[in-house]
Amino acid sequence: MNTEKDFSPLTPNIVRALNDKLYEKRKVAALEIEKLVREFVAQNNSAQIRHVIQILATEFALSQHPHSRKGGLIGLAACSIALGKDSGLYLKELIDPVLTCFNDSDSRLRYYACEALYNIVKVARGAVLPHFNVLFDGLSKLAADPDPNVKSGSELLDRLLKDIVTESNKFDLVAFVPLLRERIYSNNQYARQFIISWIHVLESVPDINLLDYLPEFLDGLFQILGDSSKEIRRICEVVLGEFLKEIKKNPSSVKFAEMANILVIHSYDLIQLTSMTWMREFIQLAGRVVLPYSSGILTAVLPCLSYDDRKKSTKEAASACNHSLMKLVTPEDDVDDEESQTKSSPQSDGSPSKKESDLNGKCFSNISFFTPASSDRPVVTLDLDGIVQVLDRHLHDSSTGMMTRIAVLKWLYHLYIKTPRKMFKHTDSLFPMLLKTLSDESDEVILKDLEVLAEIASSPAGQTDASGSCDNSDSKTELHIPGGVRDGQPVTDLSPSTPSMNSYFYKFMINLLKRFSLERKLLEMRGAFIIRQLCLLLHAENIFHSMADILLKEEDLKFASTMVQTLNTILLTSAELFQLRNQLKDLRTQESCALFCCLYRSWCHNPVATVSLCFLTQNYRHAYDLIQKFGDLEVTVDFLMEVDKLVQLIESPIFTYLRLQLLDVEHNPYLIKALYGLLMLLPQSQAFQLLSHRLSFLMLSKQEDPKAPVKDKRLAQPHIDYSELLQHFDRVQSKHLEVRHQRAGRSEHPDRKL
Question: How far apart are CA 613 and CA 634, in angstroms?
């Protein structure tokens, strides 16, 4: 520095001392400057004061020489001390050159700059608040300084500034929040610790309502919560906990809508528990306000439901979120969109705010977010399309956990209950996946799936109108409720006694049987379980009536026989079918006779099942007539095994009434003949011995006259054409025989082209 230059009112001795490399000499110069400035203050000579500060700033603090810069810094601090309470008039001139030195490459100089600013702030106190942003910006940089001395000095200055802010009621929060929002995304741990400590301080000041601006920096807080430093995470958890307490105290002033997506964004990393806890509180406090964000919330919540005990807390919080969110969906969400719009006042154009757009831009690519048209709308609109999309995606994902799949199905069931009209618009797209879910490994998943399918099949909202506009399926799956005519003949065996189902019921039955046909393992392992549950959820008569009608047209005769055998076993053994068995037992009404005829026609695919149906309905003479025709059938091992099972069933509680009727030999001759017919069919086996032993105990009340007419008290039903049923049995068995011959021909001539 040119010492010959005029630096008045600074004396040459002061100038030389400020440029000296020794700290003690610079300190002496600072004392002289302090004395000089005090004189100017006493004279009220502000021009000279500004001149001294300008010289110290431009010629020393901003000098190229390091010792001169150090002298300038201590000189500016001395000016501030001399000015005392008047330093507030010159703060900009005092602070700016010091802050510039924060960026110096010399760590000692950065330390002196920190020391100088500490003295300036200590004197000015509350007067520095208008300059808070530049001070905060400079301190945020020093917080991450690699030099420990500089960092220690910045911490002293930081504590001083916090004390000033805490004491004052003139802090400009509006001006500070943009800077906070910018700095909070720093990746440096020390800078993060600095930021979070300031948020903690500001949140604790009663006169500063930081909660109003929480949406501006909540995203950054959650990012800091994921820091690798345990101490930083601890402080951040404390801060978030304080905010959550404030939210619970003042929910009416909280901007829930602006923060909902932020919570969803941070539900996929290490901070899941905190985000789930916040989300749970938001749903409970905000209520229906969060409904437009339901799809995003479900995207975050559903995977957590399948967590194991290692993440038990997160799973419980997610479960609470899911339960609370589901409760928010009510029948009022089923009103038409046009009707909803007429109830709400005109609002904005529905475009998302800049903040929401920024958030969506930061989202992961595989997360769906649905921003509402306006958070101020009096009528909250449920984003049903978005919710269904999320639920459908989780059903299609093979990696989805069992509890998540159950939750998805519960949601679908709930939506069909609360918003049936709107949900049926999605049924055609959901239906295939719901059918596929029947092959799930979990019984509980299948049960929930059946509940959804049963609701679809029975809901009045799914009933087609005259034009059939409700069902938009393709021609291959187009369905018609049986009725009117069959094979060109009037249908008389439809039962009108059961509750009417919608168009999806018959569609469900057709596709269920098709699935059983394609997946024989499903039929074998879960077929009976599925059908029994459907009989509980829907009317058992409807299930059997519709399946019998569909199987009547089944082209795969082997599958038809297997399916009839399965249905027959369920009919005869399941507790769920008790009422249906009683309805068929006596055939007292025209409706029960019609049901018997409907079942009989399909049961003809399996001769033994047909006989058991006749036993159940006490049509013993017809059973005897059928057994006489068994001699013309191809008796196979499978056939004999079915007869064996029938004998076992006759010994079961289901046929107790049949066994008691054996006591009245005179009036049940065809029952006895039918049983003897089964006995003659059986080889010498355990079943043969069982039935033979049963029949050997028949006690004739008197010796019958062979020429006496048979007295069967079981009169033929006037509503049933038994001869036509026998003819139908013959036709069906002829088809089976023809198919078996064709298969045998193909097996003998595998190269023969048909």
Answer: 21
